[in-house]
Specification:
Layout: E1 16-18, E2 21-23, H1 25-32, H2 35-43, H3 49-63, H4 69-78, H5 84-98, H6 100-111, E3 128-134, E4 137-141, H7 149-159, E5 163-168, H8 175-185, E6 196-200, H9 206-213, E7 218-223, H10 225-232, E8 240-245, E9 248-253, H11 255-258, H12 261-272, E10 282-287, H13 292-312, H14 320-336, E11 342-346, E12 353-357, E13 370-375, H15 381-385, E14 392-398, H16 401-414, E15 418-420, H17 439-442, E16 444-450, H18 481-487, E17 498-501, E18 511-514, H19 516-532, E19 541-544, H20 554-564, E20 568-570, H21 578-587, E21 592-595, H22 597-606, H23 608-614, E22 619-622, H24 629-639, E23 643-646, E24 649-651, E25 655-659, E26 668-671, E27 676-681, E28 695-701, E29 712-721, E30 733-739, E31 743-746, E32 749-752, H25 753-764, E33 770-775, E34 781-788, H26 795-805, H27 807-814, E35 818-825, E36 842-844
Parallel strand pairs: 4-5, 4-7, 5-6, 7-8, 9-10, 9-14, 10-13, 12-13, 14-15, 19-20, 19-21, 21-22, 22-23, 33-36, 34-35
Antiparallel strand pairs: 1-2, 1-6, 3-16, 11-12, 17-18, 24-25, 25-26, 26-30, 27-28, 28-29, 29-30, 31-32, 33-34
Helix pairs in contact: 3-5, 3-8, 4-5, 4-8, 12-13, 19-20, 25-26
Length: 850
Amino acid sequence: MTTASATAVPVTAEPHFWQGSFIGDEEAAGRLAELPELAARTLAEPLPTELVLSACQQLADALGTPDGPVRARLLGVLTDGTDPEEASATLSEIAEAIARPALERKLRRELGGLRPERLTRPDARETTFEAWAPVGLLVHIAPGNAAAVAPLSVIEGLLTGNLNVLKTSSGDTLLAQHLLAELAAADPTGALARRIVVLRFSSARTEWLRLLCEPADAVAVWGGEDAVRSVAGLVPAGCRLVEWGHRISFAYLTRDAWSDEATLDALAADVCRFEQQACSSPQVIYLDTEEDGDVFGFAERFAAHLADASAKLPRPELEPAEHAEITTTELIARLEEHLGLTRVVAAEDRSWRVLADTRPALAASPLNRSVWVKPLPRTSVMTVLRPMRRYLQTAAIGGSRADVARLSQAMVAAGVLRVTPVGGMLDSYHGEPHDGVYALQRYSRRVAVRAGEAFATTACLDDLAAPAAVPAAPSGPLLDKAGVQEQLRTLAPEHAHLYFRSGGSTGAPALSVFTNADYDTQMRAAADGLLAAGFDPARDRAANLFFCGGMYGSFISFFSILERLNATQLPIAAGTDHAATAEALVTYGADTVFGMPSYLWQLFHSQSATLRAYGRIRKVFYGGEHFTAEQRRVLTEDFGVEVIRSASYGSTDLGPLGYQCARAEGSVHHVLTDLHTLEILDPEADRPVPAGQPGRLVFTSRTRAGQRLERYQIGDLGRAAEGVCPCGSHTPRIELLGRYGDVVRVGTYFFNVRRFIAVAEEELGYRGELQLILDAGDGREQATVRLDERYAADGAPARAAFLAAIPELHSAVTEELLSFSVETAGTAAFERTPTSGKLRTVIDRRQTTL
């Protein structure tokens, strides 16, 4: 995998980064005047979310390399005014936040999926398309006391497709500029660079602020009321103002909790972490009491815990203004001791202090290991806290399970945005709302397009406009099934939620493992493909007749796909009692069936009278195998089936890979480019085939956690279909040409079982199943074609037809290199995989008979 350091970003003293270049004040001033025109040009170009995820992961990898050049460059920038340990921790924090799994979780949680910018149907029963569109020109006015906030806000703006202009404080380091320059360098297309502008200047330069805010569609601002108010005065009417203001957080302890030593240790650690500079740091400790004595007694006890916690963490030097604020607050509290209102317990070296106050009103502390202790009986929570609701953020509640449940309700009703355990106030999780909202939604617009019935088979409107941007496949070795199974030995438990086994049609059943989120993404993509195939969730009544059990995934997958389409389904599953299955189809009014061709063929023929009399099966969607042309004719003419189409092209390892549209012919499928990148390689060498030529299908899955299925040889042959599909979709297409196993070498010649099937149809009018059986033989190899006796009463004419139509077969037999025969048998004699019921088209017994 390439890294963000592939193109070294120069370390420069220029304070501004503008669309890929570092510039000085004079040039920045000139470009600011052209910001409206820049926005119009840039926003006309869509920004695929996949591009942002890929670049962020590359940068995260580079930041996570201890001795790597990118981390070294950024540490050099950040340590200019920052403690080296703190600088290193900041870069590690950013790396964790922008890693692909964290951003994917954020996208799923906040915008509902990994491709929120695509116009898809939120309800598959309706032809209404919705998407999250960028708000437009997004200005970020960052705080000066949190180095990671500024670049992370810009990355959120990129995830939502915006043109981002970031203003940093004149006293800040150039971390944001250089980190975002590294991110831009990780994108070879240049699209990210075109959406990033970073300017460093003082807020006193009001003309620059005005030039930033006037053309903005949204302005995100961090700071107190004065900072927000000053920016709000520059924001034009209709511009969205996103306020990330200062907040106050507190702990709330019941009597049992404030008596617990471990709880007090955890709370003291929260007070000392980050010197209470974070909005989620505790500034007040509320006790569930009305007694002044409880407040003063707790303050004395808690002071000992705070002293211990403070001794374990070095305390930075304070600024004169911070000293002054602490001194003033402490002096007033000591004066009020004479009135019986307060009590101060402080360290002799002034490194920490506990300020006990009998009045419950919420008050900000002077920070830097200073904390208030106040009484607040639970019956007064709403009265005391609700007036301060605009400033409340986090409440850490200590108490019994029932206390936590009841008090959480009360705190949220009063205006609190987060409730955490004591000791976990500063902890967070990926995708957590910030200040009560999801940032990605504040940086986006929800847009809708209503369309008519002409779009019934269109799952995504974007596919009709232009090809989706698909990242290039990675370089590196090819992966086979053995490599996939080897990966499972070291797969972390958090990446292993759902286990499937393959049907074993091409060998021993193999195991595949997915996270629940990966599975959901794949099922939604397959559901979109099923819409394109002509399935109508508003009208069709679908019977799921795939096999299930033994960890085999077809039945479960299509249950999930139909569920996500909000379709009517009958989860019957394939079974040996064909009469009971047919009865269920008739009783419950099924008009659409899903299943394996071999099973469905048996079902239709064994229950021919029942299903012909019923006459309402209109659609057949199949998977795993193919219907022959003659079988399609019979289903259409004898049973009245109108649509026979692939339900999905996929594998147990990779999940869904492609889908057939309503205009697909033969084995042509569209590729699910939302999930995978496809390469078609020469059958004999690891190089791309010329356009339109057949080759090995090699997939790279981009939406799998844990397992890295990169350049995976799936075992199928195919070729790219040229041009835009008649259905109007620009999604690339492939024609499937069978599996490697369909081509066998016997009697020194290569034979494709599909050739035997075609000859049987064309020369004999054969409509049944066909199996090719290979044996070592006595002196020469033996090939036997097995036919269904219901459609081929005598094998002799069939043998003659095969010899006449397949020159290689005739030569091998004539040269006495091969013995060839045709046998007819009942359906019970045909060998199938026990898990899926799939017909084994080639049975090679030569290895077992040597």
